[in-house]
Amino acid sequence: MTAQLRPTAAACPACVAAPAQTVESAPQEARIALSLPGIHCQACIANVERALNAVSGVDSARVNLTLKRAMVEAAPDMQAAELIPVLEAAGYEAHELDPGAISATQTDRAGRDLLMRLAVAGFASMNVMLLSVSVWSGASDATRDMFHWISAAIAMPAIAFSAKPFFVNAWSALRVRRLNMDVPIVLAILLALATSLWETSLSGEHAYFDAALTLTFFLLAGRYLDHRTRAVARSAAEELAALEVHRAIRLTDAGEEQVPVAELMPGDLVLVRPGGRMPVDGEIVEGRSEMDRSLLTGETLPVYAEPGFAVSAGEVNLTGPLTVRATAVGQETSLHRMADLVAIAESGRSRYTSLADSAAKLYAPGVHILSALSFLGWYIYSGDLRTALNIAAAVLIITCPCALGLAVPAVTTAASGRLFRKGMLIKHATALERLAEVDTVVFDKTGTLTAGTPQLVNLNDIPLRDAQIALALAQASSHPLSMSISAAAKEAGIAPLDVSEIEEVPGFGTQGLYQGQQVRLGRAAWVEAEPGAQTAAWLAVGTEAPCAFLFHDALRPGAAEAVTALQQAGKDVRLISGDTRPAVEALAARLGIKTWQAEALPADKAQRVRNLTDHGHKVLMVGDGLNDTAALAAAHVSISPASALDAARVASDIVLLGHDLSPLADACNTAIKATRRIRENFRIATVYNVIAVPLAVAGFATPLIAALAMSASSITVSLNALRLR
């Protein structure tokens, strides 16, 4: 092996001149981040932390259930590869994340901020209303003016603080010469305050500080409900980048050296030990093993890898050490290109216009024009600026989009609660609206419709002695088929026979000696058997004819019911998988799915989803692997199981919390009902405006009456939303 020449840092002249001194400094602790897609409760947290803290060299381990992530502080030489097997032995899937590539966990500052402003507005409005009671009860002259000025002293700073989100959003829209829902809201609040201050300064009978505060309170309630329906979504592209291996073992003439992946260059030789994830795209130059590509390509079974075999960043080396010559590093790797696909798809989805935004495009300019015409009409008719301003303020308040502001979040909150009880978590604000429009459902295979693990199906047909020998050999391997044999045999109460000199032959299987005869468990070609169409591991005992252990990928609970229910609802159900053609064809036939595609690369999946979209279809994508993230982000709406990798869950709009897929069809029905309620709420708000606006324009509604009417419409909209429960 030839080491490549690299520039070295120039030495400081002062350091060269000074005598060398040995400075001992305490090495920094290793900070290891692990993704734990399978954890789901407090017991999982306790089990994971207990398992990690029991490892020698681990100082502390903390699990975040929301992010499904563990952060470990350990000795400087501790590697994630030492911890992952410990967690797998405890029954938890684990993957290494790059701590430098993931954002620190943030508290929900936006939610806290809205809640604090809502509390201030509510407290201030109650106090001002108490003062208003005295005015309504007959207080006059100096007493009335004093109460008005005290109300102003409470309302002005309270509104300046509480209504800040509306002011900021309205200004952002006006700066680019457009209108949004917050522009009429801000105008109504400011006009109510201006009118009230003017009336107070002129010792007028009516001031409307309570109306301005009540308006702010109800609108903040709607904004907070809207916020509560969203999960703070992290970028799926960021999660993909975090899954890239950030350390690698580079081989040089001097031996092995551990370096950051950023320092690798094309042509470098990299050693990947069993259980390690590929840090680069490259070609194997030495060693034989099997590669787990399930997260990247969806292939159920590991593939045999030998010199000359091309590997991609993110694949997992299973059984033997491999020396790989790097052909692509950093941003040029296939894993990074997949992250780019996700980022592009995410930006495309943001073009969806919600029902509330569509309503705002028509509503906002209409309100402004109506208020302005009311002001001009009354000023021309009466010649009294004070009267015209009061009526204009009443029109703005009574038409303020408070009901519209609550129409969507109230329904979304009710629907989200219903779906959460059925095991589905809504992450995105417009997910329900988009789910209601779906006409095509695209499923991934491995880990989505199936459990993603092979299941032994013919154990009862295997002679007991052969099953006992196979169990002895399988226990010495981490190959998925071997693990399935071990689990099935132990469940059947089978005990292993005494097989000696057991060793795993990377890429082929496991062998040993039984009563002086060589026994092998592995590939068909290795034991000189004739391979069949079905997935199998073969056992050869001495010169006896090989015996086949047959497997199929077990269905996920509720998969058949979900597919049937979606088809009965008129959806076009399709299957797109990276797995082999026979496996995909067999599953499609098993579930009654007529349209399917096998051996699809991640880019192929995303392109197929985009093609369906371009032909007018509204696509629901259901997937769980890294190879699904681009398709999940490109779909009209997407769902991933809670067991999916972080990147897939982040790219999706809805997370299925349990293992059962049967709630999928009910989610579509709930989404349709929720969208119907949203449209009903818009109609309620419209009818309210048709009745209330003429009264306000005619001068029969003071700003206080307008605020009360607006509150009544908001309560009606909220009660209609609760019908979803």
Description:
The protein has about 725 residues and is an alpha+beta fold. Among the domains are: about 30-95, 2-Layer Sandwich (Alpha-Beta Plaits); about 245-330, Distorted Sandwich (Calcium-transporting ATPase, cytoplasmic transduction domain A), CATH 2.70.150; about 425-450 and about 555-665, 3-Layer(aba) Sandwich (Rossmann fold); about 455-555, Calcium-transporting ATPase, cytoplasmic domain N. The chain is built from 25 helices and 26 strands. Strands 14-26-25-24-15-22-23 form a 7-stranded mixed β-sheet, with helices on both faces. A 6-stranded antiparallel β-sheet has the order 6-5-7-13-8-11, with no helix packed on it.
List keywords for this structure.
alpha+beta; Alpha-Beta Plaits; Calcium-transporting ATPase, cytoplasmic transduction domain A; Rossmann fold; 26 strands; elongated
